[in-house]
Amino acid sequence: MKSPNTKIILLALFFGLFVQCERDDICISTIEGTPDMVILMVDSKTGERQAPSGFSIRALGTEKLLPQSSGDSLALPLQITESVTQFEFIFNQGSENQNIDTLQFNYQRVDQFINRGCGYRASFVLDPSPILILNSGNNWIKGALILKDTISDEASAHLGILY
């Protein structure tokens, strides 16, 4: 590194790499990623938008419960590599009359290219029959209402789950 030519060459390489970065090589934090599906729990008898007491959700095949929101809506992450995602909806969790319904959410994924730094962002379109109750028997989930068929943001609810 005693040669001045070596220093100049290294400085030129560093400068060349620095100049090569373009604006779209960096993903700005204000760009939204893939949205979650927002659901409302709706009492089919009263029409009240509220989760029942002792209610929780977990992804099928895991023991980890999804965090509950304090409002009337819940955000569920959808799988971006599949066209279905399955969750267990648990009523009266931890009690002797616990009831678990396994729901399969059906959708189509639409990918949108943002830029080189951010890559792709997925949006989802709910199928005409958005849920399928996988277990038979004493189901406490009665059905679903599509409120917004395209899941492109988390600003409003996409699906109402009737119980």
Written account of the structure:
The protein has one domain. It has a five-stranded antiparallel beta sheet, with no helix packed on it. Strands 3-1-9-7 form a four-stranded mixed beta sheet, with no helix packed on it. It has one helix at residues 4-20; strands at residues 37-42, 56-59, 73-76, 84-91, 99-115, 119-133, 143-146, 150-151, 159-162. The longest helix is centred in the first third of the chain and has 17 residues, at 4-20. With 163 residues, the protein is mainly beta. It starts with a helix and ends with a strand. A hairpin with a 7-residue loop joins strand 4 and strand 5 (99-115). It contains one helix and nine strands, in the order H-E-E-E-E-E-E-E-E-E.
Give the C-alpha Rg. Answer: 23 Å
Measure the end-to-end span: 74 Å
Q: What is the β-strand count?
A: 9
Helix content: 10-25%
Q: How large a portion of the residues is in β-strands, by DSSP E?
A: 35-45%
Q: How many individual helices?
A: 1
Helix-strand string: HEEEEEEEEE
Q: State the shape.
A: elongated
Strands side by side in the biggest sheet: 2-4-5-6-8
Number of domains: 1
Biggest beta sheet attributes = 5 strands, antiparallel
Task: Let me know the average pLDDT.
Answer: 86
Overall SS class: mainly beta
Low-pLDDT stretches are none
